[in-house]
Known about the structure:
- The protein has helices at about 1-10, 35-45; strands at about 15-20, 25-30.
- The protein is built from two helices and two strands; from the N terminus they run αββα.
- A two-stranded antiparallel sheet has the order 1-2.
- The chain has one domain.
- It is of the alpha+beta class.
- The radius of gyration is 14 Å and the shape is elongated.
- About 40% of the residues lie in helices and about 20% in strands.
Amino acid sequence: MSALLKLLQADAAVAEARMLDGRLVVRMVRRAPSEDWSCVDKLIGEFGPKRKPRRRRRAA
Length: 60
């Protein structure tokens, strides 16, 4: 997980990342273009907890 923190911190201070209760919390430090955020989201998706998408129940 520290590898992800280093990657995020190295990415031009786009986000501040820290561990909170075992979860990775990423907070925006300054306004950044959406490309940077898609990159951060991709990193979080790769390193984040692998969990199945929740199935939505249809209203009858």
